[in-house]
Amino acid sequence: MKISILFVISIIFKIFVISCSFPISCKFLKTTHNAIGSVYRCDTTNILETLTTSVTSIIGTHLIDKNNNDVTAIKINGIRTLSFIPQNFSSFFPNIKSITFYNSAIKGLFGDEFDEFPKLEYIDFQANTNLTTISSRLFEKTPNMIHIWFYNNRIEKVGRDLFAWIDVSKLKYLGFTNSKCISQELNNASQSAIISLINEIRLKCPYDDEELLITTTTSLATTTVEENLTCSDEKIKDLVCDLKDEVGEIQENLLTKDQRIDNFQDELIKIREEMQAKDDKIQSFESRMKWLEEEVLRMTTNPCACK
Ligand SMILES: *[C@@H]1O[C@H](CO)[C@@H](O)[C@H](O)[C@H]1NC(C)=O
Ligand SMILES: *[C@@H]1O[C@H](CO)[C@@H](O)[C@H](O)[C@H]1NC(C)=O
Ligand SMILES: *[C@@H]1O[C@H](CO)[C@@H](O)[C@H](O)[C@H]1NC(C)=O
Ligand SMILES: *[C@@H]1O[C@H](CO)[C@@H](O)[C@H](O)[C@H]1NC(C)=O
Predict the structure, then answer these.
(1) Which has the least CB within 10 A, 17, 52, 84, 108?
(2) What is d(CA 236, CA 227) in angstroms, rounded to the nearest whole number?
């Protein structure tokens, strides 16, 4: 009983430790993208459940002669529980120009995801099977896009002004393949071809920012506690961290109580031993009484038999 309580407490404690920080593990490698040439990339596949959306540390070993400033690309692949793009990467990697994001649970790109990457040129989003919505403001701070690639997502709403922020003469690769509303892609295409695909996307996947605002508010109103906890709300994070401290205190209290229970058990053993000793005394007294009774009986039934 005692052990199982401690066990539960320590599990809770561990989950909270994970939740209050957000470390990302990187496997660093050199690779090449057709559209923008060679990049030095952080590949990560092990993002844990977290209560914060901001990366707090990077774990991983750089290739020889490389450091965080050399990292130009990030790839996040196969984290089915990840429902947002981790923020604050640029605090560690200030020169990101490529983001690859596969197989997540992300539902929408609501506008400020890329704001911290002014050098961004290349995005590749594939098999995010819950991704339906892209805000008009997604490229507001990233005018130099060369490669915008969405493949096998479930996109049905694309902000009307999505392409208004970017320099279309730079955009050469544009894919919206196997989306719900459209399936087309252009590789190393001319400006006129790009412009005509942009127009087709606007036509087939129409979406207004006003509409976006309304949907986000209503979807917020119906989110569950769990979803609230995964959002970036710093207040919630603080609360949970306070809670963690409290759990720590409770754990200490439990340890003191355990100590007291142990002491109590020692005392109990002593009392039992004393009681056993008294029992033994009573028993020997009883057997002497019995002998006496027998003796008396013998004397009364056979008075002449006494010695
Ligand atoms: C972003 O990363 C820096 C480290 O470079 C860290 O000090 C900071 O707390 C992080 N920001 C947030 C919001 O977690
Ligand atoms: C993603 O969409 C599928 C249905 O397409 C649904 O069953 C699943 O719960 C969704 N996942 C998340 C994390 O919303
Ligand atoms: C893109 O097309 C141009 C000509 O339109 C060509 O010169 C160039 O090599 C192509 N680039 C790639 C990466 O295919
Ligand atoms: C989720 O957060 C919103 C806004 O902070 C709040 O209004 C709502 O009550 C929360 N939902 C739950 C279930 O806690």
Answers:
(1) 17
(2) 12
